[in-house]
Amino acid sequence: MRPTLHAVHGFIGAGKTTLARRLEAELPALRLNTDEWMVQLHGHDPPEEVFRAGIAGINRLIRQLAERALELGLNVVLDDGYWTRASRDGLRAWADGLGVPLRLYALSLSEGEAWRRVAQRNAEPGSLYVAPETFDLFWRQFEALGPDEAHETPP
Questions:
Q1: Is the bond preceding residue 154 a cis peptide, omega within 30 degrees?
Q2: What are φ and ψ of residue 81, in 5° steps?
Q3: Residues facing 81 on adjacent strands
Q4: Strand 76-81 to strand 30-33: parallel, antiparallel, or no bridges (unpaired)?
Q5: What is the per-residue pLDDT for 155?
Q6: What whole-number distance in Å separates Cα of residue 30 and Cα of residue 140?
Q7: What is the pTM of this model?
């Protein structure tokens, strides 16, 4: 069976990690989560400059690890979010270049529900802290899927 690249699209708090963990177990697959790596490498609440530099390096490492896993015949689940059309276009181009199928799963929720979940998660040990002003900034930057973007909505 050919390995597949699975990616989860959605805003903070949409349930991406819950879905990614389910896929990891059911497929099975290697699950790669940028927030978990950030917390492990840079802490629960890294300063913005550390976060920006750190996330770029983490994304490079995750991509390298994902490529190797796919080469070895393993399914991969990318638990990131792909908030912009450009990031999703890049994801599709990358999968095409690797010659692997891409399954994009879309999760959505209201702004109020997203903040409720983020505030709850902020209090949990080991989670990546999201300040209210950061949440607001991110909400304005989030781009929903376009009508031409193939995706699946999980049950």
A1: no
A2: 140, -40
A3: 9
A4: parallel
A5: 76
A6: 31
A7: 0.93
Residue 75 dihedral angles phi and psi, to the nearest 5°: -70, 150
Whole-Å CA distances, 49 to 21, 63, 81, 114, 135: 29, 22, 21, 25, 17
> Looking at residues 104-121, what average pLDDT do you find?
96
Given a contact cutoff of 8 angstroms between Cβ atoms, the answer to whether 34 and 26 are in contact is no
- Interatomic CA distance for residues 90 and 126, integer angstroms: 30
Q: ∠ CA(123), CA(18), CA(89), 5° rounding?
A: 110
Question: At 32, which helix (H) or strand (E)?
Answer: strand 30-33
Distance CA 14, CA 78 (A): 15
How confident is the model at residue 136, as a pLDDT? Answer: 96
Architecture of domain 5-141: 3-Layer(aba) Sandwich (3.40)
Alpha carbons 118 and 128: distance in angstroms, whole number: 10
From residue 72, alpha-carbon distances to 8, 48, 58, 67, 147 in Å are 22, 36, 21, 9, 34
- Residue 6, both tokens: 């699975």
**Strand intervals (E) in 54-154:** 76-81, 102-106
